Batch of 2 targets.
Target 1
Amino acid sequence: MLQTSTPAPGPIQGDLTTTKAPFIEQSLERGELFIHQPYEQYSDSNQETWRRLYAALEPKWRRFAHPRFLDGLDRLALNPERIPRLEEINQFLEPLSAFQSKPVSGYVPSYLFFDCLRRREFPTTITIRDGEALDYLPEPDIFHDLAGHVPMHTDRRFSDILVRFGEVARSASRKVQAVDDHSVQLRTMESIIKAMARFFWYTVEFGLMKHPEKDGLCVYGSGLLSSSDEIQHSLQSDQVQRYPFQLEWVVNQYFEIDHFQALLFYVDSFDHLFEQVDRLERWVLEGKLDNVNPGEPLVNQADLDSFLQAPIDS
Ligand SMILES: [Fe+2]
């Protein structure tokens, strides 16, 4: 006799919700990091999440974001009504900075991430957060990556800063791969990756900058630009400490990702930030980052392997 059973509740077919997308699970099972954007799989609810996020952030961007970010929104012709297609975004980016958004299935080991930047490729998440919890971000999503990061990539100077990050990673990999003692190699590598992650966090992800046209600060960090609550909090709350960027502090300062940041750093300008990335590379080469303060972020084996096994002659 035939047995019938009620199918277990599972993700809706064609759902691209973060942590629930069958397409992503299948890509990960196949070991595919670089993927395509299966646009037809966005559900109505995914599109609605984009609309709600955009509507919540747009007025705040006008008040708090760096003017270059606002220019970027226009130059990319981001649509408030629907999730962007990466091919369209890339067509707009090509003549501006030659950056490309490259779809990925999930976490990118740190050397690979920085090396993508060196090649003017930005690893981009294609899933979108659950509409039930708009401010909860268990991992990056397409709103964070595309609306938070990519408008800044339209600025040639800013995109050059990202490329410099990639060059710093390559210098770090070369330096540490030349170390004979494996335990020293591991310890040094972990320390430098930690320092680079902290620098990236306090600038590209959560950076503030002196406003180029008026007194005060504005936001260029994508973690702030993709959070409807934290963007205003970062500039106006008296619970946030805002200090001029100091390299020796930043590389030794741990961070936590699961709450509003109580400590932020501001730079004077994009040129100032570029100089700091140059200094970061000098500090790598001079050994000043070989023993930074322990603590967050954790560096996993995949991050270490990605640096220690990177082809260093490319
Ligand atoms: Fe990010």
Target 2
Amino acid sequence: MRRASIVGVVLVVAAAIVYVLLRDVTLYEFPSRSEQLAAVGKVIRDCSVCPELVVLPQGSFLMGASEQDRDIYLRSGGSAELAAAETPAHRVDIAYTLAFGRYEITWDEYDKCVRERECPERYAGTWGRGRNPAIHVSWDDVTRQYLPWLNKKAGLHDKPTSFQYRLPTEAEWEYAARAGTTTAFSFGDSIDSTQANYDGKMSYNNGQSGEFRQKPLPVGRFQANPFGLYDMHGNVAEWVQDAWHENYQGAPSDGSAREGGMSFMGATVRAVRGGTWLANPGALRSAFRGRTDSTTSSFSIGFRVVRTIPIAGNR
Ligand SMILES: [Ca+2]
């Protein structure tokens, strides 16, 4: 009896150690398709200063607004010009495994790069740092400084670029925000201020009006979406890789980013997604597209990171 309980304790401790190790060990690739399927929904972290990532399922989805989504948006006072940017809706296949940032990158995470003098110091406003999302960080700051630093910390800098941390593409971002849903938001066609951080005084599609908090909130305050991701709707809008294009004519269907596009004062205009803590509810829709140039430092724009995990021999 006694020996059995000692063996039991040893097994539990061993399992706990394996769990902790796995959580903090970079998963360069899945040994097989079955291990990749088993990992869907798991949270991984590649190093002590690395953000948590959620392993997403592969799949395909309709990118852009459905007719119903657009009708409700326009009826709710949405802009016809912005609605046109969400068309034509088109099928996108995400036929690879994405590990997607569980939260917006926080000040705690960003400032570790600043302390090592690899990222520029950025202003947090009067709202504090800690678990609040990092803001005033430009697309250029993210891609030229934070991501190279993070890849070095995770030991990914000398791996093939297909392993490395990067911004999500616009298609990947919408796939992650929808999380298998086709409604305006991952929780349905209306929204209230218990579900996300935005200008909750404004109602949408007969939803309740509520609180306008007038500031970014620490990440993870609201319920996660069906993929286990937090704050895809609201809090801070999020940089994506893609250059801005007026609509989805000619958009790729394989999840890749679009480059080219327009520039402003010599800087490429990039898409930002998800709406902000001071946005109207229509701007939090999964289909909604914002834009600004890559040098913009805004109190309402942050970011999250992703990386692809290939299956061995299948990069
Ligand atoms: Ca967000």
